[in-house]
Design brief:
182 residues, mainly alpha
Length: 182
């Protein structure tokens, strides 16, 4: 199930790229890629193995210690995500990125926060080996992101809207899509 979902996620992501690149053109697609790369760096830093530790600890704990651990882990994820997003925006400002890229970094940073919350809340599914649900999560995120991008292309949406679409979960275990946008 997970292999099929992963393959479907790749097809959704790759299938929409020609439409997005044609609509945005090289320069604006490059801006999208710049922000995606910056947020990817923040993603790598904020993950830091927390997904794996979360699954291990959740599997070994029960009752109140498990609930307390999950509350702490969720708080840590939210805190790290907010600090990382703020750091990315400050970096974009300091590096002299154009306004649309700074604003896009803020939007993508908030998307990262939502993804990290989702990944943390999915830990019980992963620890419980609920592969059907995990596969669904693995597929739904890229599918909705691809649909959003197609809508943006069809409506000739401004570049700023595109920054929200790449911030989506691609794995219930804490993995994220490491490719450039979408």
């Amino acid at each position: 199930m997970r292999v099929v979902a992963y393959g479907g996620a790749i097809l959704f992501s790759v299938g929409v790229i020609p439409f997005v690149t044609r609509e945005l053109g090289a320069a604006r697609y490059g801006q999208l890629g710049t922000v995606a790369a910056l947020i990817l760096i923040v993603t790598i830093i904020t993950e830091g193995g927390l997904g794996t530790v979360g699954i291990r600890e959740y599997s070994n704990l029960t009752g109140e210690p498990r609930r307390l651990f999950m509350r702490h882990l969720l708080g840590l994820r939210v805190t790290l995500s907010l600090i990382g997003a703020l750091g990315a925006v400050l970096f974009a400002l300091a590096a002299g990125y154009p306004a649309v890229e700074v604003e896009g970094t803020a939007i993508a940073g908030l998307g990262l926060l939502l993804v990290n919350i989702q990944v943390t809340l999915a830990i019980p599914l992963t620890a419980g080996l609920r592969m059907g649900w995990i596969a669904a999560i693995d597929l739904i995120g890229p599918a909705t992101g691809a649909i959003a991008l197609v809508v943006f292309v069809l409506t000739r949406a401004p570049l700023l809207w595109y920054f929200a679409a790449p911030a989506r979960p691609t794995g219930a275990t804490g993995s994220r899509d490491a490719r450039a946008p979408p």
